[in-house]
Task: structure prediction
Amino acid sequence: MLSVHIADSHVSLRRAPRPLPKPGYALIRLLVGGICNTDIELLRGYYGFAGRPGHEFVGVVEAPADSKWLGKTVVGEINLGCGKCERCAAGLERHCARRTVLGIVKHPGAFAEYLTLPERNLYAVPRGVPIEHAVFTEPIAAACEILDQVKIAQGAEVAVLGDGKLGLLCAQVLQAHGASVQLYGRHAEKLRIAAGTGCATSLGERGLPARAYDTVVEATGSAAGFASAIRMTRPRGTIVAKSTVHGNVEVDMARVIVDEITVVGSRCGRFAPALQLLRSGKLRLDGMISAEYPLSEAEAAFAKAQERGVIKVLLRP
Ligand SMILES: [Zn+2]
Ligand SMILES: [Zn+2]
Result:
């Protein structure tokens, strides 16, 4: 089968044997995959990664023959817990110390004609949800994680900083939840997507309001975004840190302490609420798909995904 490979900041194609699923695992034929910022970071060498990337996918289960998932269109949780530790027992495979992660840590990713995942990681794509929307399940789940971590009341004013893929999804998810979202970004055309779901938007970095929000979601992907988030948060407010910023970030701890600001790190989330939201039709995802490429043109797809202004790039076998 065709398989995408990343090593030494280079994308290449390989012929690989079709994987044999271990007991408890399903063999999944890829229908569509999405390139995420994490994939770009793997390519740039932040994690010393070499292997097959891809963790946003929709596929069809083709084996084992006795699987209850056989023939079903599925998405899958990307964290594979050990299944034996305390965190796994608490349903927190996402925090299992021995976990592997699809396409990121020691489990071959989804950018190939076939992949494998434990059957317990799978979720059926709800009827009526197109696969081009379902491929957003994983990043939508990451946005939904905010609601598992922080109480946000109906009508509460929330600032989201950053109009990249994750910022746009965080804004849409929180707006759909009933918050009153103000999205701050740099691209008029991206802000327009969030505006379509009722979010208020602000273009540019000038005049960010000081001490204005009880909840600020930082999704700029930059260290400067975190400093802005601190300035914008009210005393006793909460900053949800969604950007994975590499290296050390300078933080004005005096503001954090004196104003008693809570900083919540936030990463992957549960798939169930994400699929429920997808079924609700409240999200605007079509405008977030910038381009599609066949797997055989993965190198071009990765190049496209790194262009300025590009949002989501999809891969199809
Ligand atoms: Zn991702
Ligand atoms: Zn575990």
